[in-house]
Amino acid sequence: MSKTKNNAPALGADYSAKMKSRYAEKVKTSAKIYSKADRRENRVVENMSDEAQQESQQESACDGHCLCGAVSFKIIGKLRPVVNCHCGQCLHTHGHYAAYTAVEKNKIKFVNDAGLKWFRSSNEARRGFCQECGASLFWERLGASTISIAAGMLDLAQGVKTTGHIYCSDKPAYYEIVDDLPKFPQSSDGELDGDL
């Protein structure tokens, strides 16, 4: 049986046009144009536990910068809880005790690092600061996979709480630690989630 023109399969542009018209007949598109905000509002979060929601917030993006903006960065990852360090180096670097959170190094991206300088403060660590405004920003143990960030440099750190104090034996007499958080004379030796 020979194929007539009417029974021949549609090929190329004719076939594409035919399929597009069939699709258009079956699917009626909405006139609404959805924005990112609409998609964000449509996410299902009410089924998440409080702990999962808090973890999700900690995984979200967080920006940080020094006072003048010559060092600015973005963090996309889970921040460690804040640990207050009362060691002599932190006192002399910050002018008071230091409050540090931390993140995996591969989770921090620099937007601007023109002002960033590093000072080798010991055989084990270095400190990052802004050479323009003098802000003390980072503490980094050499060879570690994480970097500690001065918590005050973060624009938004929802869900991050202080968990304790270290090097309390170095604390000067001019202030008292009055909260009920754990206090360690030196390092917590890991009891405070990586304490620096």
Structural summary, described in words:
With 196 residues, this protein is α+β, with helices and mostly antiparallel strands. The protein has a domain at 50-170: Metal Binding Protein, Guanine Nucleotide Exchange Factor, Chain A (Beta Complex). The protein is built from four helices and ten strands. The strands form two sheets. The chain has a seven-stranded mixed β-sheet with strand order 6-7-8-9-4-3-10. It has a three-stranded antiparallel β-sheet with strand order 1-2-5, covered by helices on one side. The longest helix has 15 residues, at 12-26.
Shape: globular
Biggest sheet strand line-up: 6-7-8-9-4-3-10
What structural class is derived from the secondary structure elements? alpha+beta
The overall pLDDT average reads 80
Q: In angstroms, what is the radius of gyration?
A: 28 Å
Q: What is the CATH fold-level name of one domain?
A: Metal Binding Protein, Guanine Nucleotide Exchange Factor, Chain A
Largest sheet: 7 strands, mixed
Query: Beta-strand level of the residues, as a percent range?
Result: 25-35%
Tally of contiguous helical segments: 4
Which architecture of one domain per CATH? Beta Complex
Q: What top-tier CATH class of one domain fits best?
A: Mainly Beta
Q: What is the total tally of β strands?
A: 10
**Run of helices and strands:** HHHEEEHEEEEEEE
